[in-house]
């Protein structure tokens, strides 16, 4: 009787790892990637905060000489500075003109942008919706200089008869009173151009928000006998209200900081006038800085940076206010 010898066992070779150990090793790797991604995200957020703080400190440091200078020093250093006026009185008309132009643009652009966004998301056929979406995105890529040229050479002459009509028949309203500019280089024309510039931003964001409306909400409204408009009014608009506010605030930020289009169209002035059809009555902060900075030196540069600090504070306040509105209306938006 023959016996078969078993193959020799190599005592130096390690035993095979159990499957549980392999799963544990994969889980450790995934947890490691998760920690790395978390720290990368935290670093990105901290970088944004650091950049914002750096910009604020730079503006405050460079603006401090102008904020603490006397009236005589500022009047001597700044060519456009009126006598016997504090710096805050000097920057007041610039803040007023900036806010006025931005509010006009926002009031004109937001309803139109919402209508375009609703048409693209819920009314237009798919191919037409895609084409309109591309055109809206293309409008956002046009440089502001092109908008300025178009506004000065094309839009201003077209709007002149409309401004004359508003002044003739609605002149009893303070906004349309006064003498209409012959060249339409007024804050009203600037507001229309800014409205066209911020239109693609508000439209694009609103369109994406409306497309995120839960289909069950829309189908439930239609199943209860609602028309297309009633479905939009009861399901789509409440769900996207906070998103539309965010889109409008993004557009408002663009309008507040716009420079070249305003500089090329507006005839500047330093008053608190409510007559938006008159020229040489208003000026914005961004256009004022761009106009005077090339020839400024010394304390005049600090004064311009101080006006930039005012624009920074306005923009920050607008964004904080927008976040407050969104947080206040979030529970009613349907997103939860």
From TrEMBL:
GO molecular-function terms, A-Z: phosphate transmembrane transporter activity
Membrane topology: Multi-pass membrane protein
Compartments reported by the entry: Cell membrane
Residue ranges, annotated region (Disordered): 1-28
Matching SUPFAM superfamilies: MetI-like (SSF161098)
Domain ABC transmembrane type-1: 95-322
Residues spanning the membrane: 39-61, 94-120, 132-156, 187-206, 299-322
Species whose genome carries this gene: Myceligenerans xiligouense
Role: Part of the binding-protein-dependent transport system for phosphate; probably responsible for the translocation of the substrate across the membrane.
Gene3D superfamilies: MetI-like
Family: Belongs to the binding-protein-dependent transport system permease family. CysTW subfamily.
GO cellular component: plasma membrane
Keyword terms, alphabetized: Cell membrane, Membrane, Phosphate transport, Transmembrane, Transmembrane helix, Transport
Keyword Cell membrane listed: yes
Entry protein name: Phosphate transport system permease protein
Predominant location category: membrane
Entry annotated with the keyword Transmembrane: yes
Biological-process GO terms, alphabetical: phosphate ion transport
InterPro entries per UniProt: MetI-like, MetI-like_sf, Phosphate_PstC, Phosphate_Transport_Permease
């Amino acid at each position: 009787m023959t016996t078969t010898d078993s193959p020799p066992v190599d005592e130096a070779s390690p035993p095979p790892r159990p499957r549980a150990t392999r799963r544990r090793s994969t889980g450790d790797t995934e947890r490691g990637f998760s920690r790395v991604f978390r720290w990368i995200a935290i670093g990105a957020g901290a970088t944004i905060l650091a950049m914002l703080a750096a910009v604020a400190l730079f503006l405050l440091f460079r603006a401090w000489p102008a904020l603490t200078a006397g009236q005589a020093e500022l009047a001597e250093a700044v060519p456009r500075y009126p006598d016997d006026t504090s710096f805050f009185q000097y920057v007041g008309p610039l803040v007023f003109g900036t806010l006025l132009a931005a509010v006009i643009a926002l009031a004109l652009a937001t309803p139109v942008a919402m209508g375009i966004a609703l048409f693209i998301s819920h009314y237009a056929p798919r191919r037409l919706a895609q084409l309109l979406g591309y055109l809206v995105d293309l409008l956002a890529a046009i440089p502001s200089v092109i908008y300025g040229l178009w506004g000065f050479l094309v839009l201003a002459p077209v709007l002149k008869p409309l401004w004359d009509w508003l002044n003739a028949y609605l002149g009893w309203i303070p906004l349309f009173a006064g003498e209409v500019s012959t060249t339409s280089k007024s804050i009203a024309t600037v507001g229309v151009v800014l409205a066209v510039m911020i239109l693609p931003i508000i439209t694009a964001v609103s369109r994406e928000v409306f497309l995120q409306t839960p289909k069950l909400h829309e189908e439930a409204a239609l199943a209860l006998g609602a028309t297309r408009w009633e479905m939009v009014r009861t399901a789509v608009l409440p769900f996207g209200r906070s998103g539309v506010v965010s889109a409008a605030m993004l557009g408002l930020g663009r309008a507040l900081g716009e420079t070249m289009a305003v500089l090329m169209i507006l005839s500047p002035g330093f008053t608190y006038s409510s007559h938006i059809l008159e020229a040489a009555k208003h000026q914005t902060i961004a256009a004022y800085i761009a106009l005077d900075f090339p020839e400024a030196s010394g304390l005049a540069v600090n004064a311009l940076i101080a006006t930039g600090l005012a624009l920074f504070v306005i923009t920050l306040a607008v964004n904080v206010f927008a976040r407050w509105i969104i947080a206040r209306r979030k529970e009613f938006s349907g997103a939860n």
